[in-house]
Amino acid sequence: QVQLVESGGGLVQPGGSLRLSCAASGSFVTINAMGWYRQPPGKQRELVATITSGGTTTYVDSVKGRFTISRDNAKNSVYLQMNSLQPEDTAVYYCKADGRISLFKSFSSWGQGTQVTVSS
């Protein structure tokens, strides 16, 4: 079983910054893709950014140039640096990881979520 624990959410004023962290623990062989998703109030969960084990990144258009995803493979961790935050970035942010528990079994795990609120 693979557990993901997020941290770093909170309340920030428009134009401010936050850095989210997510650490994976448990029994696994490898973690391939890691990513961040968010669910705004009353809306569906959406992809924010992903990063492969090799460092290839993707971003949703609305955060390009403002958010940066990174990972530390040695620490099984992924980060999301969020700059120039706007009220529309308010959401619960979830970490996701996909990998392999064994040669024949894969996993896909979610964190519990961390609240990000952008408001003056």
In short:
It is built from no helices and eleven strands. It has 120 residues and is mainly β. The strands form two sheets. Strands 2, 4, 5, 6, 9, 10 and 11 form a seven-stranded mixed β-sheet that branches.
Task: Give an overview of the whole structure.
The protein has 120 residues and is mainly β. The chain is 0% helix and 60% strand. It is built from no helices and eleven strands. The protein has strands at residues 2-7, 10-12, 18-26, 30-39, 46-51, 57-59, 67-72, 77-82, 91-102, 105-110, 114-118. The strands form two sheets. Strands 2, 4, 5, 6, 9, 10 and 11 form a seven-stranded mixed sheet that branches. Strand 7 and strand 8 form a beta hairpin. The protein is elongated and about 50 Å long.
Secondary-structure map with pairings?
Layout: E1 2-7, E2 10-12, E3 18-26, E4 30-39, E5 46-51, E6 57-59, E7 67-72, E8 77-82, E9 91-102, E10 105-110, E11 114-118
Parallel strand pairs: 2-11
Antiparallel strand pairs: 1-3, 3-8, 4-5, 4-9, 5-6, 7-8, 9-10, 9-11
Order of SSEs: EEEEEEEEEEE
Q: Tell me what portion of residues adopts beta-strand conformation.
A: over 45%
| Secondary structure category | mainly beta
What composes the largest sheet?
Answer: 7 strands, mixed
How many distinct helices?
Answer: 0
Q: Let me know the number of strands.
A: 11
Helicity level:
under 10%
Q: Cα distance, first to last residue?
A: 40 Å
Give the CA-based shape: elongated
Which whole number gives the mean pLDDT? 96
Low-confidence stretches: none
CA radius of gyration is 14 Å
